Amino acid sequence: MGDDSKSILRSPHLDAFQVVGTEVLLLTEPMDSFMLMGLRKYKDFELKNAAQADLPEVPRQEEKAEKIPDEEFKTLVERFKQVLGERVTDVRASSRLSQSVARLVDPQGTLNPELQRVYKYLGKEVEIPKKILELNPSHAILKNLSRLEAASALQALVIEQIYDSALLVEGLHPDPARIVPRIQQIIEQALNRSLKSE
After folding, report:
1. Which residues touch 150 (CB under 8 Å, ≥6 apart)?
2. Is 85 exposed, middle or buried (CB count within 10 Å of its CB: 0-12, 13-18, 19+)?
3. Nearest to 81 by CA among 168, 179, 11, 156
4. Among candidates 181, 34, 194, 11, which has minimal Cα distance to 117?
5. Among 19, 25, 139, 181, which residue carries the largest CB count within 10 Å?
6. Which residue has the higher pLDDT, 153 or 1?
C-alpha cells in the first residue's frame, strides 16, 4: 500500500516478489486501508501485506552477490543498534531483499499497517511505530559501510540515513526536510575522502 503505484513499485518489500515474478496487488486509494481491515481473503487467495515480518519465505534465484562475512555483519548490526537505539525493536539480516539496502517490518503484535494508515488519514496523532530494521548483507552500501572505521562520524551518518530512507519509503517520516543537512554532510565527507585518495 502507498500513495501511488510508482512509489509502491520501488518499495523494498517487493524485492523478493520481483525476483521470482510473483504478482502483487498495488493498493493506492485511501479507502483501501479501511477495506483491508475487514477483507482478509478474496476467492481462494489470502490477502497479506508484503511489509509484514511473518510472511513466508519467497523462493529466491541463486545468489549472485557475495554476502558480508558473518562476523563482520554481526559487528555492523551491533553498530546499527548502537546508533539507532530505541527507534527500532531489532536489526537483523533479511533473506527477502535483493536490490534494496534495508526495509522496515512490523514486529508481531504491533498496530497493523492498514490501521496505521487509517489513523494517518483521519489526522490522528500516531507515533512512528518501532519496527524491525532488516538489512541486505549482499548490498554494496553495507559492504562499504562495514569497511569504514568503527564508530566513525561518517559511519553513524550513513546508518542514520539508511534508517531515515526506510522511513521515507514507508511514508512514515515525520519531517523529511530534516534529512537534507545530513545528506550534505555525507556528500561533503565522501568528497573529502575521494580527494584525499587521489
Report:
1. 75, 79
2. exposed
3. 156
4. 34
5. 139
6. 153
Which helix (DSSP H) or strand (DSSP E) does residue 114 occupy? Answer: helix 113-121
Under 8 Å between Cβ of 140 and 109: no
Q: What is the pLDDT of residues 106-165, one digit of tens each?
A: 887 665 555 666 666 676 666 667 889 999 999 999 999 999 987 888 999 999 999 999
Neighbours of 3 (CB within 10 A): 12
Question: What is the topology classification, in CATH, of domain 5-197?
Answer: Four Helix Bundle (Hemerythrin (Met), subunit A) (1.20.120)
pTM of the predicted protein model: 0.78
What is residue 122's DSSP assignment? T
pLDDT in tens, 54-74: 565 655 554 556 899 999 999
